[in-house]
Design brief:
This protein is α+β, with helices and mostly antiparallel strands. It has one helix spanning 70-84; strands at 7-10, 17-22, 25-28, 31-34, 37-41, 51-54, 59-64, 91-92, 96-98. A six-stranded antiparallel beta sheet has the order 7-1-2-5-6-9, with no helix packed on it. The chain has a three-stranded mixed beta sheet with strand order 3-4-8, with no helix packed on it. This is Type II secretion protein.
Length: 100
């Protein structure tokens, strides 16, 4: 799982995306949906009306891997355990841009 601050290109994308969040759960059509990441356009930064939600398989290229330390590794362990238990009950989201 990529660290917050990582910069990626999505498949068929031409804009760099910076990872803002890992494992966001959204409510779509009255059900909870899990994405691997949320992100924003780089270098623009966060615009709440242009948050992108995407999954690991949608990443074409990692341009920069964000900072990692023992807390990141611990988070990864806990998150993977959560995915095996509660996370497996959630539908995986399709790549999209959430516009409010």
């Amino acid at each position: 799982m990529l660290s917050i601050g990582s910069i990626v290109y999505l498949r068929e994308g031409s804009q760099k995306i910076m990872v803002l969040n890992r494992g966001p759960v959204l409510k779509e059509n009255d059900e909870k949906v899990l994405y691997d990441y949320s992100g924003c356009k780089f270098p623009n930064g966060l615009n709440p009306e242009e948050v992108l939600y995407f999954n690991q398989e949608n990443i074409d290229k990692v341009v920069f891997a964000g900072y990692t330390d023992e807390e990141q590794e611990r988070f990864d362990d806990l998150y993977n355990e959560w995915l095996k238990n509660e996370g497996k009950m959630l539908k995986k989201g399709d790549v999209k841009q959430a516009l409010k």
